[in-house]
Design goal:
Chain lengths: 290, 290
């Protein structure tokens, strides 16, 4: 598909794109940039990327595709540095977990949304991070959401779509604001809840015992809460209005649960638990249908 | 170890005890009772139990060990029915996830805590339920907590301890109130939080999309929330004061998070996420040491 591909941020996400692009022969050469020198060195040594560059301003029109795969808080700065040699013959995309703030940053840097910048979000990852966790299979059967705006070039969207599809992903197109609504609920709130709960229980006097006996319940929360704190900080700040509103909804839900417990209203509590179980069953059915 | 073992409630927990007792040759005969006739029939047909009885009042002094493995809310009624043929030569134990309420129920039925009733709690299970999910390996390397009281016969405790150890479990002794404190934090609160979050998001207009894109975050919550609603209703009512107090703590933690987001205090948010990640690391270290 492409000759030269540039990956800005060769962590789990960017590194896995590099591995998959290599595996599926989607380009001739993969160039990587990463602030973490050890991580970048590891990416070269393990053959995940062909060439490491020092400076984002070296990314020019010799690239066919450039993927911004850094925490969403750094996209603005990255775009400022890319602007210097920004090329209309290159297609740019990103892998940020929030989309409105990336579009906002691009508009701020360029005065308008560049037609050849396709905002995207691969729904993949794990609590692991860094190039060492990268895998060519990370995107196999995973969803990727592209959120082009009115100004976005349709050919650029088609190229990015094809790139992800060839790595095994299933691509959807979505409005950026709608994307941020959905992921505030399905991803951001659950992570904030997990971080908060683990932080709270981890500060209790009995924290060692709580960890020791963390079987089914708390253990799953600690796994979620072991995700990269910097990445999640950026996501929370980027999508904070929506997350705050959901946290407020959730606080009200917990108030309701406590009222129900206080009044010993078994039927109401059972109905909530039952409805949650039903939602899970809908999820499994939907998942299996696809 | 034993001749006849009675299992009251042949679900995931009781059924797995039956399978493990058979596998490790811990008794000659396994007798089961279950309110769900289909489940009981399946337990006989699959050879998990040898004999199915209709009525708890048939459990008499011919049994060496009787395990109460029903939801904690039904223990009182079960003890009332067992009382008729209660035998001092039999050892009784239970597998309830809360301990104070089981002890309270026993004291209510017998006027005091019977010396041959050893309250216990195996820390094992899954979101699966019923005898079909039973496995002889469920307790392998899992923890079992026994919470004897002052009146409890030490020989009975030793017998129950040996029984679990031979099924591969690691047994600890704990004060009943302390047990209920620890498990309110490590198990009950996380489950209530998962049920509440899944219920809340499952009622939103975008619920189908939220489920569709439920990758890392929400998916883990739906798994926890697919646990048996009746079992969790009983646990919540049995340990409700402690759970209510932790829910209140957690509501305050969420208020704090929202204040931090509102003020854009990146450092404070990062510190919370970082501390949660550290707690996870402590968990992994402790887990691997053992």
């Amino acid at each position: 598909v492409f000759d030269r591909v540039g990956i800005l941020g060769v962590g789990l996400i960017g590194g896995s794109v590099a591995c998959a692009a290599r595996k599926y022969k989607l380009c001739r050469e993969i160039v990587g940039i990463d602030q973490d020198r050890n991580n970048l060195l590891a990416a070269v040594e393990s053959g995940v990327i062909d060439i490491a560059l020092e400076d984002v301003r070296q990314i020019d029109g010799t690239f066919d595709l450039v993927l911004l795969a850094t925490p969403v808080g750094s996209m603005g700065e990255l775009l400022v540095n890319l602007k210097r040699n920004w090329s209309s013959s290159t297609v740019y995309s990103d892998s940020g977990s929030t989309k409105l703030n990336v579009i906002r940053a691009a508009k701020l840097v360029f005065g308008r949304m560049p037609a050849n910048f396709v905002p995207g979000h691969p729904i993949a990852g794990s609590e692991q991070s860094g190039v060492a966790a990268a895998s060519p299979h990370l995107y196999q059967n995973k969803r990727v959401i592209l959120t082009p705006v009115a100004e976005t070039d349709r050919k650029a969207v088609a190229l990015v779509e094809e790139f992800w599809q060839k790595m095994g992903a299933r691509v959807s197109i979505m409005e950026p604001a709608h994307h941020d609504d959905i992921f505030a609920a399905t991803s951001h709130l659950p992570h904030v809840v997990a971080f908060s709960l683990v932080d709270m229980l981890g500060r209790k006097d009995e924290k060692d015992e709580i960890l020791k006996y963390a079987a089914g319940g708390f253990k799953d929360f600690t796994r979620l809460a072991s995700s990269d704190p910097k990445m999640w900080l950026d996501i929370c700040l980027a999508n904070r209005e929506r997350i705050m509103s959901l946290i407020e909804d959730f606080r009200k839900e917990l108030t309701l649960i406590n009222e129900i417990l206080d009044r010993n209203e078994a039927d109401k509590l059972f109905a909530i638990f039952q409805s949650a179980k039903t939602a899970r069953q809908r999820f499994l059915e939907q998942y299996e249908l696809e």
